[in-house]
Design brief:
Length: about 525
Protein backbone atom coordinates (compact mmCIF):
# COMPACT_ATOMS: atom_id res chain seq x y z
CA UNK A 1 0.00 0.00 0.00
CA UNK A 2 2.65 2.51 1.07
CA UNK A 3 6.37 2.02 1.57
CA UNK A 4 7.85 5.21 3.07
CA UNK A 5 11.50 4.40 2.33
CA UNK A 6 14.45 6.06 4.04
CA UNK A 7 14.48 8.91 1.52
CA UNK A 8 10.80 9.74 2.11
CA UNK A 9 10.22 13.49 2.26
CA UNK A 10 8.34 13.97 5.55
CA UNK A 11 7.17 17.41 4.50
CA UNK A 12 4.56 15.49 2.48
CA UNK A 13 3.06 13.88 5.58
CA UNK A 14 0.24 16.38 5.91
CA UNK A 15 -1.18 15.53 2.48
CA UNK A 16 -0.61 11.79 3.05
CA UNK A 17 -2.60 11.94 6.28
CA UNK A 18 -5.50 13.58 4.45
CA UNK A 19 -5.25 10.94 1.70
CA UNK A 20 -5.50 7.96 4.05
CA UNK A 21 -8.10 9.38 6.41
CA UNK A 22 -10.21 10.71 3.58
CA UNK A 23 -10.72 13.84 5.69
CA UNK A 24 -9.68 17.45 5.33
CA UNK A 25 -9.73 18.27 9.01
CA UNK A 26 -10.06 21.79 10.31
CA UNK A 27 -7.00 21.37 12.49
CA UNK A 28 -7.81 24.32 14.74
CA UNK A 29 -11.30 22.95 15.39
CA UNK A 30 -10.23 19.35 16.05
CA UNK A 31 -7.45 20.46 18.39
CA UNK A 32 -9.99 22.45 20.36
CA UNK A 33 -12.18 19.34 20.42
CA UNK A 34 -9.26 17.26 21.74
CA UNK A 35 -8.56 19.89 24.38
CA UNK A 36 -12.16 19.78 25.60
CA UNK A 37 -12.09 15.98 25.74
CA UNK A 38 -8.90 16.15 27.80
CA UNK A 39 -10.50 18.61 30.22
CA UNK A 40 -13.41 16.20 30.55
CA UNK A 41 -11.25 13.20 31.44
CA UNK A 42 -8.78 15.09 33.61
CA UNK A 43 -11.57 16.48 35.82
CA UNK A 44 -11.44 13.11 37.55
CA UNK A 45 -8.49 13.95 39.74
CA UNK A 46 -6.26 10.95 40.44
CA UNK A 47 -3.83 11.74 43.26
CA UNK A 48 -0.30 10.42 43.21
CA UNK A 49 -0.52 7.05 44.97
CA UNK A 50 1.13 6.63 48.34
CA UNK A 51 1.10 2.86 48.28
CA UNK A 52 3.76 0.31 47.50
CA UNK A 53 7.26 1.77 47.13
CA UNK A 54 8.80 1.10 43.73
CA UNK A 55 12.20 0.16 45.09
CA UNK A 56 10.83 -2.83 47.01
CA UNK A 57 9.81 -4.55 43.77
CA UNK A 58 13.11 -3.94 41.95
CA UNK A 59 16.00 -6.37 41.63
CA UNK A 60 18.94 -5.72 43.95
CA UNK A 61 21.07 -4.23 41.15
CA UNK A 62 18.37 -1.68 40.33
CA UNK A 63 17.89 -0.77 44.01
CA UNK A 64 21.60 0.02 44.15
CA UNK A 65 21.03 2.17 41.06
CA UNK A 66 18.41 4.21 42.90
CA UNK A 67 21.03 5.17 45.47
CA UNK A 68 23.70 5.97 42.88
CA UNK A 69 21.44 8.12 40.70
CA UNK A 70 19.69 9.96 43.54
CA UNK A 71 22.24 12.84 43.83
CA UNK A 72 21.84 13.56 40.11
CA UNK A 73 18.04 13.71 40.27
CA UNK A 74 15.27 16.01 41.48
CA UNK A 75 11.59 15.48 42.33
CA UNK A 76 9.01 15.44 39.54
CA UNK A 77 6.78 18.50 39.43
CA UNK A 78 3.30 17.74 38.17
CA UNK A 79 2.40 20.19 35.38
CA UNK A 80 -0.28 20.50 32.71
CA UNK A 81 0.15 20.14 28.92
CA UNK A 82 1.28 23.20 26.99
CA UNK A 83 -1.17 25.08 24.79
CA UNK A 84 -1.10 24.41 21.04
CA UNK A 85 -1.39 27.25 18.53
CA UNK A 86 -2.41 27.20 14.86
CA UNK A 87 -1.43 30.08 12.58
CA UNK A 88 -3.34 31.36 9.54
CA UNK A 89 -1.47 28.91 7.27
CA UNK A 90 -2.42 25.88 9.35
CA UNK A 91 1.02 25.49 10.93
CA UNK A 92 0.85 23.90 14.37
CA UNK A 93 3.25 24.82 17.18
CA UNK A 94 3.41 24.93 21.00
CA UNK A 95 2.84 28.19 22.83
CA UNK A 96 6.50 28.36 23.92
CA UNK A 97 7.64 28.64 20.30
CA UNK A 98 7.80 32.43 20.51
CA UNK A 99 10.45 32.08 23.21
CA UNK A 100 12.56 29.85 20.95
CA UNK A 101 12.12 32.27 18.05
CA UNK A 102 13.43 35.08 20.26
CA UNK A 103 16.46 32.96 21.16
CA UNK A 104 17.07 32.23 17.47
CA UNK A 105 17.60 35.93 17.01
CA UNK A 106 20.05 35.81 19.91
CA UNK A 107 21.95 33.06 18.08
CA UNK A 108 22.21 35.21 14.96
CA UNK A 109 23.33 38.27 16.93
CA UNK A 110 26.01 36.36 18.86
CA UNK A 111 27.54 34.55 15.89
CA UNK A 112 30.38 36.96 15.16
CA UNK A 113 32.06 35.20 12.24
CA UNK A 114 31.30 32.92 9.32
CA UNK A 115 33.96 30.48 8.11
CA UNK A 116 34.30 27.66 5.59
CA UNK A 117 35.61 24.29 6.77
CA UNK A 118 37.91 23.88 3.77
CA UNK A 119 39.82 27.02 4.79
CA UNK A 120 41.11 25.03 7.77
CA UNK A 121 42.52 22.16 5.72
CA UNK A 122 39.48 19.88 5.52
CA UNK A 123 39.05 17.75 2.40
CA UNK A 124 35.69 16.15 1.67
CA UNK A 125 37.12 13.11 -0.10
CA UNK A 126 35.76 10.50 2.32
CA UNK A 127 39.33 9.57 3.32
CA UNK A 128 41.07 12.49 5.01
CA UNK A 129 40.72 12.84 8.79
CA UNK A 130 39.18 16.30 9.25
CA UNK A 131 38.86 16.21 13.05
CA UNK A 132 41.54 18.88 13.60
CA UNK A 133 40.01 21.10 10.91
CA UNK A 134 36.61 21.00 12.66
CA UNK A 135 38.23 21.85 15.99
CA UNK A 136 40.09 24.83 14.55
CA UNK A 137 37.10 26.11 12.61
CA UNK A 138 34.69 25.87 15.56
CA UNK A 139 37.10 27.14 18.18
CA UNK A 140 35.26 28.39 21.26
CA UNK A 141 32.03 29.04 19.38
CA UNK A 142 30.24 32.17 18.24
CA UNK A 143 30.77 30.89 14.71
CA UNK A 144 28.72 29.85 11.69
CA UNK A 145 30.62 27.02 10.02
CA UNK A 146 29.86 26.37 6.34
CA UNK A 147 30.52 22.75 5.31
CA UNK A 148 30.50 22.34 1.51
CA UNK A 149 29.54 19.27 -0.51
CA UNK A 150 31.60 16.18 0.16
CA UNK A 151 32.19 13.51 2.80
CA UNK A 152 34.22 14.71 5.78
CA UNK A 153 35.77 12.13 8.11
CA UNK A 154 36.02 12.82 11.84
CA UNK A 155 36.53 11.05 15.16
CA UNK A 156 33.76 13.13 16.74
CA UNK A 157 32.74 16.80 16.91
CA UNK A 158 31.86 18.81 20.01
CA UNK A 159 29.90 22.05 19.69
CA UNK A 160 30.26 24.95 22.17
CA UNK A 161 27.51 27.49 22.77
CA UNK A 162 26.57 29.84 19.92
CA UNK A 163 27.62 27.41 17.18
CA UNK A 164 25.84 27.02 13.83
CA UNK A 165 26.80 24.17 11.48
CA UNK A 166 25.43 24.48 7.93
CA UNK A 167 25.89 21.93 5.15
CA UNK A 168 24.83 21.91 1.50
CA UNK A 169 21.89 19.56 2.25
CA UNK A 170 21.11 15.96 3.11
CA UNK A 171 23.21 13.65 0.96
CA UNK A 172 25.29 16.53 -0.39
CA UNK A 173 27.29 17.17 2.79
CA UNK A 174 28.13 14.12 4.90
CA UNK A 175 30.03 13.99 8.17
CA UNK A 176 31.21 10.42 8.73
CA UNK A 177 32.87 8.71 11.68
CA UNK A 178 36.48 7.58 11.24
CA UNK A 179 37.07 3.83 10.87
CA UNK A 180 39.06 3.90 14.12
CA UNK A 181 36.44 5.77 16.17
CA UNK A 182 35.45 3.97 19.36
CA UNK A 183 32.06 2.26 19.64
CA UNK A 184 30.85 4.78 22.24
CA UNK A 185 31.59 7.82 20.07
CA UNK A 186 28.88 10.41 19.59
CA UNK A 187 29.37 11.70 16.06
CA UNK A 188 28.04 15.17 16.93
CA UNK A 189 27.32 16.52 20.41
CA UNK A 190 27.57 19.63 22.53
CA UNK A 191 30.86 20.46 24.19
CA UNK A 192 29.99 20.27 27.88
CA UNK A 193 27.36 17.83 29.15
CA UNK A 194 27.89 18.77 32.80
CA UNK A 195 27.88 22.56 32.69
CA UNK A 196 25.57 22.59 29.69
CA UNK A 197 25.51 24.56 26.43
CA UNK A 198 23.04 26.82 24.69
CA UNK A 199 22.13 28.22 21.27
CA UNK A 200 23.32 25.42 18.95
CA UNK A 201 22.07 24.88 15.39
CA UNK A 202 22.84 21.94 13.07
CA UNK A 203 21.42 22.22 9.58
CA UNK A 204 21.51 20.73 6.09
CA UNK A 205 23.71 17.63 6.21
CA UNK A 206 23.94 13.86 6.67
CA UNK A 207 25.53 12.21 9.70
CA UNK A 208 26.98 8.74 8.99
CA UNK A 209 27.89 6.85 12.17
CA UNK A 210 29.76 4.32 10.00
CA UNK A 211 28.48 1.22 11.78
CA UNK A 212 30.30 -0.87 9.16
CA UNK A 213 33.58 -0.16 10.97
CA UNK A 214 32.42 -2.44 13.81
CA UNK A 215 31.98 -5.49 11.61
CA UNK A 216 29.50 -8.14 12.75
CA UNK A 217 29.64 -7.55 16.50
CA UNK A 218 26.28 -8.37 18.13
CA UNK A 219 25.85 -5.02 19.97
CA UNK A 220 26.57 -1.64 18.40
CA UNK A 221 26.26 0.66 21.45
CA UNK A 222 27.98 1.11 24.80
CA UNK A 223 25.95 2.89 27.52
CA UNK A 224 23.85 5.95 28.29
CA UNK A 225 23.62 8.58 25.56
CA UNK A 226 26.76 7.41 23.74
CA UNK A 227 26.92 5.78 20.28
CA UNK A 228 24.46 8.14 18.55
CA UNK A 229 24.65 10.39 15.49
CA UNK A 230 23.54 13.58 17.28
CA UNK A 231 23.24 14.04 21.04
CA UNK A 232 22.13 17.23 22.75
CA UNK A 233 22.73 16.66 26.48
CA UNK A 234 21.95 19.56 28.81
CA UNK A 235 21.34 21.95 25.89
CA UNK A 236 19.03 24.94 26.20
CA UNK A 237 17.87 26.48 22.91
CA UNK A 238 18.78 24.03 20.19
CA UNK A 239 17.77 23.47 16.58
CA UNK A 240 18.22 20.48 14.26
CA UNK A 241 16.98 21.19 10.73
CA UNK A 242 17.14 19.17 7.51
CA UNK A 243 19.51 16.51 8.86
CA UNK A 244 19.85 12.79 8.09
CA UNK A 245 21.19 10.25 10.62
CA UNK A 246 22.58 7.05 9.05
CA UNK A 247 23.00 3.71 10.87
CA UNK A 248 23.77 4.95 14.39
CA UNK A 249 24.83 2.39 16.96
CA UNK A 250 22.13 3.64 19.35
CA UNK A 251 19.99 6.66 18.40
CA UNK A 252 19.73 8.90 15.39
CA UNK A 253 18.87 11.96 17.51
CA UNK A 254 18.98 11.99 21.32
CA UNK A 255 17.67 15.02 23.22
CA UNK A 256 18.86 14.12 26.67
CA UNK A 257 20.02 14.96 30.14
CA UNK A 258 23.65 14.79 31.16
CA UNK A 259 23.08 11.22 32.35
CA UNK A 260 20.13 8.92 31.89
CA UNK A 261 18.71 8.75 35.40
CA UNK A 262 17.24 5.74 37.22
CA UNK A 263 16.62 7.21 40.68
CA UNK A 264 13.08 5.81 40.69
CA UNK A 265 9.54 6.77 39.74
CA UNK A 266 8.93 10.32 40.96
CA UNK A 267 12.48 11.54 40.23
CA UNK A 268 13.87 13.30 37.15
CA UNK A 269 17.45 13.87 36.03
CA UNK A 270 19.20 17.15 36.57
CA UNK A 271 20.73 18.71 33.47
CA UNK A 272 17.93 17.99 31.03
CA UNK A 273 17.69 19.78 27.69
CA UNK A 274 15.06 22.48 27.10
CA UNK A 275 13.57 24.33 24.15
CA UNK A 276 14.77 22.19 21.25
CA UNK A 277 13.19 21.98 17.79
CA UNK A 278 13.87 19.03 15.47
CA UNK A 279 12.43 19.56 11.99
CA UNK A 280 12.60 17.67 8.67
CA UNK A 281 15.05 15.02 9.84
CA UNK A 282 15.38 11.42 8.65
CA UNK A 283 17.01 8.37 10.18
CA UNK A 284 17.33 4.71 9.30
CA UNK A 285 19.33 1.71 10.50
CA UNK A 286 19.37 2.88 14.12
CA UNK A 287 20.40 0.40 16.79
CA UNK A 288 17.68 1.56 19.18
CA UNK A 289 15.46 4.58 18.39
CA UNK A 290 15.38 7.08 15.54
CA UNK A 291 14.57 10.05 17.79
CA UNK A 292 14.48 9.83 21.58
CA UNK A 293 14.09 12.22 24.47
CA UNK A 294 15.13 11.70 28.12
CA UNK A 295 14.38 13.95 31.11
CA UNK A 296 13.99 16.98 28.84
CA UNK A 297 11.31 19.67 28.50
CA UNK A 298 9.73 21.74 25.75
CA UNK A 299 10.75 19.69 22.72
CA UNK A 300 9.11 20.02 19.29
CA UNK A 301 9.60 17.26 16.71
CA UNK A 302 8.00 18.03 13.35
CA UNK A 303 7.88 16.83 9.73
CA UNK A 304 10.37 14.00 10.35
CA UNK A 305 10.64 10.37 9.20
CA UNK A 306 12.18 7.33 10.94
CA UNK A 307 12.36 3.85 9.43
CA UNK A 308 14.02 0.42 9.31
CA UNK A 309 16.00 0.12 12.56
CA UNK A 310 18.74 -2.50 12.82
CA UNK A 311 17.87 -3.17 16.46
CA UNK A 312 21.51 -4.07 17.10
CA UNK A 313 21.69 -2.15 20.37
CA UNK A 314 19.59 -4.99 21.84
CA UNK A 315 19.67 -8.76 22.03
CA UNK A 316 18.43 -10.27 18.78
CA UNK A 317 14.67 -10.74 18.76
CA UNK A 318 14.14 -8.48 21.81
CA UNK A 319 14.73 -5.07 20.27
CA UNK A 320 12.50 -2.26 21.50
CA UNK A 321 13.56 -0.08 18.55
CA UNK A 322 11.07 2.72 18.01
CA UNK A 323 10.79 5.37 15.35
CA UNK A 324 10.14 8.13 17.90
CA UNK A 325 10.42 7.38 21.61
CA UNK A 326 9.47 9.87 24.31
CA UNK A 327 11.21 8.25 27.24
CA UNK A 328 12.04 8.52 30.93
CA UNK A 329 11.13 11.78 32.61
CA UNK A 330 10.40 13.82 29.48
CA UNK A 331 7.71 16.49 29.74
CA UNK A 332 5.91 18.84 27.36
CA UNK A 333 7.02 17.16 24.15
CA UNK A 334 4.99 17.95 21.01
CA UNK A 335 5.05 15.84 17.83
CA UNK A 336 3.62 17.29 14.61
CA UNK A 337 3.12 15.52 11.26
CA UNK A 338 5.86 12.89 11.57
CA UNK A 339 6.04 9.40 10.06
CA UNK A 340 7.55 6.02 10.92
CA UNK A 341 7.88 2.72 9.05
CA UNK A 342 8.85 -0.86 9.96
CA UNK A 343 9.89 -0.11 13.53
CA UNK A 344 8.87 -2.00 16.68
CA UNK A 345 6.93 1.04 17.88
CA UNK A 346 6.04 3.91 15.61
CA UNK A 347 5.62 6.31 18.53
CA UNK A 348 6.31 4.99 22.01
CA UNK A 349 5.63 7.12 25.10
CA UNK A 350 7.08 5.31 28.09
CA UNK A 351 9.48 4.88 30.95
CA UNK A 352 11.55 2.13 32.48
CA UNK A 353 10.45 0.61 35.75
CA UNK A 354 13.04 2.51 37.80
CA UNK A 355 12.42 5.94 36.27
CA UNK A 356 9.62 8.48 35.90
CA UNK A 357 7.25 8.27 32.96
CA UNK A 358 7.12 10.76 30.12
CA UNK A 359 4.19 13.13 30.71
CA UNK A 360 2.27 15.92 28.99
CA UNK A 361 2.99 14.57 25.50
CA UNK A 362 0.94 15.72 22.50
CA UNK A 363 0.84 14.17 19.04
CA UNK A 364 -0.77 16.12 16.21
CA UNK A 365 -0.70 14.14 12.98
CA UNK A 366 1.34 10.95 12.60
CA UNK A 367 1.60 8.30 9.89
CA UNK A 368 2.70 4.81 10.95
CA UNK A 369 3.35 2.18 8.25
CA UNK A 370 4.08 -1.47 9.08
CA UNK A 371 5.24 -0.71 12.60
CA UNK A 372 4.58 -3.61 14.96
CA UNK A 373 2.87 -1.34 17.48
CA UNK A 374 1.98 1.90 15.78
CA UNK A 375 1.31 3.81 19.02
CA UNK A 376 2.48 2.29 22.30
CA UNK A 377 2.00 4.10 25.63
CA UNK A 378 3.31 2.34 28.78
CA UNK A 379 5.21 2.60 32.05
CA UNK A 380 7.14 -0.65 32.26
CA UNK A 381 6.89 -2.44 35.61
CA UNK A 382 3.78 -0.51 36.72
CA UNK A 383 1.08 -2.51 34.95
CA UNK A 384 -0.07 -5.38 37.14
CA UNK A 385 -2.01 -5.21 40.38
CA UNK A 386 1.01 -6.43 42.34
CA UNK A 387 3.20 -3.71 40.74
CA UNK A 388 3.53 -0.25 42.28
CA UNK A 389 1.15 2.16 40.59
CA UNK A 390 2.90 4.74 38.44
CA UNK A 391 3.30 8.13 40.09
CA UNK A 392 4.08 9.94 36.84
CA UNK A 393 2.34 8.36 33.82
CA UNK A 394 -0.12 11.17 33.07
CA UNK A 395 -1.50 13.24 30.22
CA UNK A 396 -1.29 12.16 26.58
CA UNK A 397 -3.27 14.01 23.89
CA UNK A 398 -3.27 12.70 20.32
CA UNK A 399 -5.10 14.01 17.26
CA UNK A 400 -5.24 12.71 13.68
CA UNK A 401 -3.22 9.49 13.92
CA UNK A 402 -3.02 6.91 11.13
CA UNK A 403 -1.89 3.29 11.49
CA UNK A 404 -1.38 1.37 8.26
CA UNK A 405 -0.99 -2.42 8.31
CA UNK A 406 0.77 -3.16 11.61
CA UNK A 407 2.75 -6.40 11.28
CA UNK A 408 4.85 -8.85 13.27
CA UNK A 409 8.58 -8.14 13.25
CA UNK A 410 11.88 -9.90 13.82
CA UNK A 411 12.87 -6.93 15.98
CA UNK A 412 10.61 -8.28 18.74
CA UNK A 413 9.53 -11.77 17.75
CA UNK A 414 6.88 -12.41 20.40
CA UNK A 415 5.08 -9.09 20.04
CA UNK A 416 1.65 -9.24 18.41
CA UNK A 417 0.81 -6.43 15.95
CA UNK A 418 -1.38 -3.60 17.24
CA UNK A 419 -2.39 -0.18 16.01
CA UNK A 420 -2.69 1.15 19.56
CA UNK A 421 -1.76 0.01 23.08
CA UNK A 422 -2.41 2.04 26.23
CA UNK A 423 -1.05 0.58 29.48
CA UNK A 424 -0.80 2.19 32.89
CA UNK A 425 -1.27 5.80 31.71
CA UNK A 426 -3.94 8.14 33.09
CA UNK A 427 -5.68 11.03 31.32
CA UNK A 428 -5.27 9.84 27.72
CA UNK A 429 -7.27 11.28 24.81
CA UNK A 430 -7.10 10.04 21.23
CA UNK A 431 -9.28 11.92 18.75
CA UNK A 432 -9.55 11.04 15.04
CA UNK A 433 -7.70 7.74 14.74
CA UNK A 434 -7.62 5.75 11.49
CA UNK A 435 -6.42 2.12 11.41
CA UNK A 436 -6.12 0.39 8.01
CA UNK A 437 -5.32 -3.31 7.95
CA UNK A 438 -4.26 -5.78 5.30
CA UNK A 439 -7.22 -8.06 4.56
CA UNK A 440 -4.83 -10.90 3.67
CA UNK A 441 -2.73 -10.63 6.84
CA UNK A 442 -3.29 -12.94 9.82
CA UNK A 443 -3.98 -10.93 12.97
CA UNK A 444 -4.76 -14.14 14.88
CA UNK A 445 -8.10 -12.86 16.14
CA UNK A 446 -6.45 -10.25 18.36
CA UNK A 447 -7.58 -6.68 18.96
CA UNK A 448 -6.41 -3.79 16.80
CA UNK A 449 -6.42 -1.37 19.75
CA UNK A 450 -5.87 -2.50 23.35
CA UNK A 451 -6.67 -0.48 26.48
CA UNK A 452 -5.21 -2.50 29.32
CA UNK A 453 -3.06 -2.88 32.45
CA UNK A 454 -4.61 -0.31 34.78
CA UNK A 455 -5.01 2.48 32.25
CA UNK A 456 -7.37 5.14 33.66
CA UNK A 457 -9.33 8.09 32.35
CA UNK A 458 -9.09 7.20 28.66
CA UNK A 459 -11.24 8.78 25.93
CA UNK A 460 -11.25 7.36 22.39
CA UNK A 461 -13.24 9.44 19.91
CA UNK A 462 -13.75 9.28 16.14
CA UNK A 463 -12.07 5.93 15.48
CA UNK A 464 -12.17 4.27 12.07
CA UNK A 465 -11.09 0.67 11.30
CA UNK A 466 -10.78 -0.67 7.75
CA UNK A 467 -9.73 -3.97 6.14
CA UNK A 468 -9.20 -6.08 9.25
CA UNK A 469 -10.66 -9.43 8.23
CA UNK A 470 -8.72 -11.66 10.67
CA UNK A 471 -8.68 -9.47 13.81
CA UNK A 472 -11.13 -10.23 16.60
CA UNK A 473 -11.95 -6.75 17.88
CA UNK A 474 -11.44 -3.15 16.89
CA UNK A 475 -11.09 -1.82 20.46
CA UNK A 476 -10.65 -4.19 23.39
CA UNK A 477 -10.80 -2.87 26.95
CA UNK A 478 -9.21 -5.55 29.10
CA UNK A 479 -10.86 -6.59 32.37
CA UNK A 480 -9.82 -8.74 35.30
CA UNK A 481 -7.58 -7.78 38.19
CA UNK A 482 -5.28 -5.71 35.94
CA UNK A 483 -8.22 -4.07 34.20
CA UNK A 484 -8.53 -0.61 32.70
CA UNK A 485 -11.13 1.70 34.27
CA UNK A 486 -12.89 4.98 33.43
CA UNK A 487 -12.95 4.56 29.65
CA UNK A 488 -15.12 6.51 27.19
CA UNK A 489 -15.47 5.24 23.60
CA UNK A 490 -17.36 7.45 21.15
CA UNK A 491 -18.00 7.44 17.41
CA UNK A 492 -16.44 4.21 16.11
CA UNK A 493 -16.79 3.04 12.52
CA UNK A 494 -15.87 -0.42 11.15
CA UNK A 495 -15.50 -0.86 7.37
CA UNK A 496 -14.62 -3.94 5.28
CA UNK A 497 -13.95 -5.97 8.43
CA UNK A 498 -15.64 -8.94 10.09
CA UNK A 499 -14.46 -8.18 13.64
CA UNK A 500 -16.45 -6.96 16.61
CA UNK A 501 -16.23 -3.18 17.02
CA UNK A 502 -15.73 -3.01 20.80
CA UNK A 503 -15.03 -5.75 23.35
CA UNK A 504 -15.33 -5.16 27.09
CA UNK A 505 -13.62 -7.31 29.74
CA UNK A 506 -15.01 -8.31 33.11
CA UNK A 507 -15.20 -6.06 36.15
CA UNK A 508 -14.51 -2.75 34.41
CA UNK A 509 -15.82 0.29 36.27
CA UNK A 510 -17.05 3.52 34.76
CA UNK A 511 -17.22 2.72 31.05
CA UNK A 512 -19.40 4.10 28.27
CA UNK A 513 -19.66 3.23 24.56
CA UNK A 514 -21.58 5.53 22.21
CA UNK A 515 -22.38 5.61 18.49
CA UNK A 516 -20.72 2.52 17.05
CA UNK A 517 -21.32 1.76 13.35
Amino acid sequence: MLNLAKNHDPRKNTELLAQFTGKQLDIRAVLEETKQLFLECSLKEIPFPSGKDCKHSLPFSQRIGLVLFWPFSRPVEKTVPVQIKVDDHGNVYPDWMQKLDDEYRQLIENVTKEVNLTDFGAVGDGKTDCTAAFQKAIGKGKVKLIIPEGTFITKGIRLPSYTWLVGAGKGATTIKLHNKAKKGTRLLTNANHWQGNHHIMVQGLSLDWNVERLGSIPKTSTWGNHSSCLTYANVIYGWVKDVEAINPGLHGFDISSTLYNYAGDGRRARGGSKYVWIDNVNSCGFGDDGITTHHSDYILISNSHMCDPSGRAHRKGCSNSNGIEIDDGSQNVVLVNNSTARCFGGVEIKAHQNSSAAANVQIIGHLSVNDNRSYNFRHIGHHKMEDPESKTAFNILATNLVSIEPVSTDLYKNSTPRSLVVSGYKNVVLNHFTAIGNPNYDYYGGPVAAIQYRARNVILSNFSFKNFTTAGTGIKVFGGKNRADSVRIRHVEICNSTMEAVSIGQGIRDLTVENVK
